[in-house]
Design brief:
By secondary structure, the chain is mainly alpha-helical. The chain is globular, with a radius of gyration of 19 Å.
Length: 158
Amino acid sequence: MDRRLDALARDLSDSWHELGRVLASRRLLASLHGGTSPALSPTRRKALDVLARESGGVRVGELARGVGVDETTATRLVDRLAADGLVHRRRLESDRRVTVVELTAAGTELVDEIARRRRDFFRDVLRALEPDEREELVRLTARAAGALRSTTEELIRR
């Protein structure tokens, strides 16, 4: 059983590595994000995704954790996104010492366009599978992502 599990782990590693390489290719990203600002790096896109999930704004520290950078880097990231007109800062009414970052209308529009392009891309990917395989792929991918997140958090705590 351990040899079979080792072989499956090796195959999964190879497949995920290939999947990551394909999904991170500059040509694919340019296609999915065509028409967006050329300065919209993967880190900026991730920050916009984090902000889009949180209505009411996000503190810089929360944004830093969501993007996987330190707070100083997140502050510079917010500065650049604000200069591009994609986000703005505001003070919390309940605590004027706290600043939150929110998407502007232009930022929301950009996030929506990127999300539409991603959905179109993955819709095309799913069309290559049988209907029952589609649902199974989505279900197993969600489970695998949860396992990866859990295992990663465990490794980081060590």
